[in-house]
From TrEMBL:
Keyword vocabulary terms for this entry: Fatty acid metabolism, Lipid metabolism, Mitochondrion, NAD, Oxidoreductase
Domain 3-hydroxyacyl-CoA dehydrogenase NAD binding per the UniProt entry, residue ranges: 9-195
Protein name in UniProt: 3-hydroxyacyl-CoA dehydrogenase
Source organism per UniProt: Coemansia pectinata
Entry's Gene Ontology molecular function annotations: (3S)-3-hydroxyacyl-CoA dehydrogenase (NAD+) activity; NAD+ binding
EC number: 1.1.1.35
Length: 297
């Protein structure tokens, strides 16, 4: 197991990604504080974590219910909850933001956090699509040198990869520390430049959008396209199952943002939303999280 001096983590945003990141860090013996806007959101985040840990525990200690509970309780015992971001980062070695995908909200959050986090703390964003350098725009030079992208994948407990995104300003020792920490929590890092979509989403989003356009042209049903990609290309989920899993609002937000002003992607037809996607989002059919998307859940 790779060691890392990072031990106190604060995760801001307790949704599907933030709670997953907190769970994985706590599983690897880190002291974690999970922050969200109110107690209700925190309770939701806590219940995501407990549910996911129970699944892991059931597999690990199949016949032993007491051991399952001990496993879950021990990990949950390392997670504290807070609605006060400044207080929650005051002792952090690493702060990971996983809040709503909105540049202004993220910039304002980091401006607030930079007043309270230790100077040597690493600040990181889990954004799917926004430039890391732009999220750090309001910070001073010293903070920018310790600001990085740490892009996890959904579902966090299961997906091995973390993209480590380097900005123009970030110092090499921060990249090295981030890479070591990713390994220490049992994940595999891939380092890349701060460009739209980094590696995975730059390739995944056109694939998702082209799948939706196949459906719009009535080439095949969603079920048959999913079957084709699972059995013909070996993907664990078909593109429509995956779109529903990620969230159709998230996908629309990403392509709309890049179409409007993504560096090198602006106006590219591959990164244009589609009538079908727009309609589903307008109807509130956002995928698994809303109970309906391309499929009903
Ligand atoms: N938490 C804990 N354990 C979990 C889990 C979770 N959320 N999900 C699965 N598991 C574990 C459990 O032990 C489970 O066993 P039980 O069902 O007995 O509890 C075991 O894994 C197998 O679960 P499934 O049968 O549900 O899993 P599967 O083999 O079908 O795999 C999957 C599920 C990992 C999600 C797989 O379908 C997959 O890899 N799908 C593709 C996901 C993907 O591409 N994600 C990236 C999205 S893009 C992104 O995230 C970036 C972005 O910015 C938008
Ligand atoms: P989500 O909607 O499930 O969770 C977001 C959480 O952030 C909510 O609980 C919300 O209450 C909280 N929040 C919003 N504003 C906040 C603030 N100012 N302070 C504290 N908490 C706040 O979203 P998610 O799917 O977990 O996505 C979070 C981030 O991760 C986004 O940047 C997204 O692009 C990125 N991401 C998403 C996926 C995915 O597949 N969904 C994958 C990788 C990265």
């Amino acid at each position: 197991m790779v060691q890392s001096p990072i031990s106190r983590i604060t995760v801001i945003g307790g949704g599907q990604m933030g709670s997953g990141i907190a769970q994985v860090a706590a599983t690897h013996k880190h002291e974690v504080t999970l922050v969200d806007v109110n107690q209700e959101a925190l309770d939701r985040g806590k219940s995501y974590m407990a549910k996911s840990l129970k699944r892991v525990a059931k597999k690990k200690f199949a016949e032993d219910e007491a051991a399952q509970s001990r496993f879950v309780d021990e990990i949950m015992g390392r997670v504290s909850l807070s609605t006060k971001p400044q207080e929650a980062v005051s002792r952090a070695d690493l702060v990971i933001e996983a809040i709503v995908e909105n540049i202004k909200v993220k910039q304002d959050l980091f401006a607030q956090l930079s007043k309270a986090a230790p100077q040597e703390a690493i600040l990181a964003s889990n954004t799917s699509s926004l430039p890391i350098g732009k999220i750090a725009e309001l910070l001073d030079e010293q903070r920018k040198q310790r600001f990085i992208g740490l892009h996890f994948f959904n579902p966090v407990p299961q997906m091995k990869l973390v993209e480590v995104v380097r900005t123009k300003e970030v110092e090499q020792d921060v990249v090295d520390s981030a890479v070591a920490w990713v390994k220490a929590i049992g994940k595999a890092p891939a380092v890349c430049k701060d460009t739209p979509g980094f590696i995975v989403n730059r390739l995944l989003l056109p694939y998702m959008m082209e799948s939706i356009r196949l459906l719009e042209r009535d080439v095949a049903s969603a079920q048959d396209i999913d079957t084709a990609m699972k059995l013909g290309a070996g993907y664990p989920m078909g593109p429509f199952e995956l779109c529903d899993y990620v969230g159709l609002d998230t996908i629309k937000f990403i392509v709309d943002g890049w179409h409007k002003d993504g560096e090198g992607l602006k106006g590219n037809p591959l990164f244009t939303s589609s009538k079908k996607l727009d309609e589903l989002v307008k109807q509130g059919r956002l995928g698994v999280k809303s109970g309906k998307g391309f499929y009903d859940y």
